[in-house]
Amino acid sequence: MTHVAELKGITKNYPGVVALRDVSIAIRAGEIHGLAGENGAGKSTLIKILGGALALDAGEVLIHDQPVRLSTPHAAITRGISVVHQELVSAPSLSVAENVLLGHLSHNAVGGVRWKATRERARDALDRVGLAVDERTEMGRLSLGQQQLVEIARALLRDARVLVLDEPSAILGGKDLDVLYDVVRSTRDSGVAVVYISHRLKEVLSLCDRVTVLKDGRSQGTVDVTDLDEQRLVTMMTGRQLTAPQRPVVVAKAETLLEAIPTERDSGGLKVTVRAGEIVGLAGLVGSGRTEVARAIIGAEPGPYDVTVAGEPFRRRSPRAARRAGIAYLPEDRKDQGLLLNRSIRENVGLASLRLRSIAGVMRSRRDRASVADLAKRVHLKAASLEAPPSTLSGGNQQKVMLARWLATSPTVLILDEPTRGIDVGGKSEIYTLMRELTDSGRGILMISSEIEEVVAMSDRVLVMNQGRVVAEYSGHEITEDNISRSALLSAPTDQGHVQ
Amino acid sequence: MNEPAATMLAKPKMQGVRERGPAATATMRKYGAGVALILLIIFSSLQSDRFLQVDNVLNVLRQISIVGVLALGMTFVIITAGIDLSVGSMLSVVVVYTADTVQTRGVFLGVIMALSLGCLLGLVNGLGVAIGRIQPFVMTLGMLAFAKGIALIFTEGQPVAITNDAFLAFGNGRTLGIPNPAIVFLVLLAVCMFVLRGTVFGRSVYAVGANEEAARLSGIPVRRVKCAVYVISGLMVGIAGILYASQLGVGTPVAGDGKELDAIAATVVGGTSLFGGVGTAGGTFVGAAILGVLSNILNLSGVSPYVQYLFRGGLIVAAVLLQRREGRGR
Q: What's the whole-model pTM score?
C-alpha cells in the first residue's frame, strides 16, 4: 500500500536539545491518523517539518513514495499538505469568504476581484464543512469553533490530500466538538488523510483509526486504535500508569469567601459562591458565559452581578481592586491575557506583587530575585533560568508561572479559567496537586473548565452554566458527567430551571 | 497528599524549543546596537585622525544631547507600544515660550515655563491615549499639527532672540571640561536607566507594552502608566527645549521640525521594539550615539549633507535588520 505522505528517520536538533530523533510516520489516504504525546514530545516540531515551516536535520519526506523537499509552507501546500494550526490564522476584519480564499480570490485579467465567483467558491467550501453561516459575515463575528471550520474549509479548497489539524479540540466544547468530529470523519471518507493531534485520550480513541505516539522526541510506534485503550495510550505517552485523581473530601460548612449574586435583570440564575477550602467547578459549554462571570467578578468587564468578598460588598470593581481584595484570576488564554512573552520569567512571576518587593516605588532587586525563586520553588516550576522568557516553558510550567504570580499576592480566592488547557497529562496532575494544596490551606478555588472529567474529578461542588446563567448546582454524589452534561446542554432553561 | 499524582510529576520534561534560536536573536537585540557603535567608531577612527580627539568626542556628545533627551522620553512611550510624533512640534512650542519668558521674566521662570509646558502638552497626549483611547499615532499626530500652530501663532512666524547672558552661558558652557548639554543628557540617561530597570513604575511600563491585557488583569494601573509615559516624553521635551534655547540663543517656531523622527530613529536603532515590551535607556543612548557619530564622521570626511541623508536612512534600516527577531506575540 502506498502512503500519501511519509516521514522517514526525521531528526531535528535545536541548540542543546534534540527535538526529534529518528521519527518515522507513514500516513495513508483515507485515515484519521492520530498524533499523541505530551507537550514537548515533539508533535509540533514534526508538524512544522511536514508543513514546510521548519527544515529537518536528517531524514526524508516522501509524498506518494517520491522524496520531496518541503522548504516553505507554500511548497507543502502545493504538494497537498495543509496544516490548520492551533492558533487560528485568520483576518478577523475580512469576510468569511475572503478568509476561505485567502490568497486565492477569484479575479479578472486586471486583478479586480470577481466577488460573485469568490463567494460561490467559498460557499462550496463552507458547505463541505457544514458551516451554515453567510459567507459575507465578518470573520471576527464567528465563534472559535466556526473559525476553525473556516480554516479547514480553506485547507480543503486547496485540494489538500493530507489535512493536519493541530489540537483542534483544545479550544472547542460541546456541540462544536461534535461538528468538528463529523467534519473530520467526512473529510476522511472523501479520501483525504487527516493527521489529528490531540491531548484528549478519549477523543484519540474514538476518532482516530491509527495513532502514532511521540515521547521525548522519539516515536513510540504506530498502533491501530482497536488495539488500544486509555490505560495503554497513557503508558505509551508518559511511561506511567493512569490513576484516577483522588475523590476530594467534602468540605463542611466553611466561611464563604466569595459570592456573586445575579442582579434582577439576570433573574433565574443561581448565585456563585466559593467557600474556604473548596474547589467549585464552573462547567458549561464554551460560550455559555463562564469566563464572563469570572471577568465580572474581578471587574475586568461589567456584568450583572453583586459581588461580596468575605461578606463585604465589593462595589467599585477593577482587576486592581480585586487583587487588593484577595481575588486572583488566571485567564484561559495564557499567551494573550496572562504572560509577558518577551519579558523574563522573573518579571512574569513578579507582575502582580511589585509593591511588595519595593520601597517607595524602587525595586529591591535582591529581594525580588529571592522571592521569585521561592515562588518558583513553591509551584515546582521547572525552568532552566528565571531570566529566560516564558516561551521556553511547556504549557504546564507556563501555568505554574501564572500561579506563582498570584500566590505572591496571598489571595483568598483563586479563579482558574481552564487551568489545564493545552497542558499534558503530567503537567495536569501537577496543577491539580497545587490546587489541592491551595484549598487545604484554606483558600477557595473557582475552576472554570470545559473538560467534564476534570470537573467531576476535582470539584467539591459544581455549578453549570447555560446561556449566560448558572442553571444548576451539584455536590457530593450528584456530581456526575451525566448530570453536568444534561444541565449544560438542555436548551432554554425555564424560569424555575435549576435541575436540582 | 495525592500519592499517585505526586509520582507523576517527578520527571522533568524536555521542552521543544520553538522557532529558531530565540536566545541568539535576544542576544543580538541586546548587544547588536553596541557592536554596531563600536564598529562604527573603529571605522571612523581609521577614516579620520581627528575623530578620536577629546574635543571631537565631546562635540559629538553635545550634538546628540537634544535629540538624545527627546529619545529618552520616546523610549518610555515606545516600550508601551505607543509612539509620540509630537515631540518636534512640542519642542518648538517650548522653545518659543521659554525664549520669551527668559527675556521678559528671567531665567528661573523660563525654566519653570519650559518644564511645565512640556508636561502639560504631554499630559494632553497621555489623557487622549489613556482615557480617550485614541491611537497614539493619531493622538500625537494631532498634537504635532496643533503644537506647531501654537508656536507659529505665538511668534507670528518670527524668531524670538534671547539676550540673557547667564542663560546663554549654560547652553554653551562647560563644567569640568564637558559641555553642559552633554552632562544633562548623561544625567537624564542615568535616571531613565534607573527608573526603567529598578522601579515599580519601570516594570509596569514594560508590562503594559509586553501584554496590556495581562498587565491589566494583574492589577497594573494601565491607564495611569500610559498617561505617565506621555507626560515623561513631554517633560523631556521641556528639558530639551531649555537646552535648545540656551544653546542657540533664539526661539524659532521651527526649532523642532523633524526632531520627532530623529528621536524615533535613535530609539529604534537602540533596540527598542515598536511592538512594545522591549527596550532600554542605555540602548537609546547607543542609538543616538550611532546616529551622531555617523553624521560626525561624514562631516569630517567632507561628505555633502545631501548625501548624508542616504547614509542615515541606510543605517537606520540596517541597524534594525541586525536586531530583527520573530514578530511573535504580534
A: 0.76
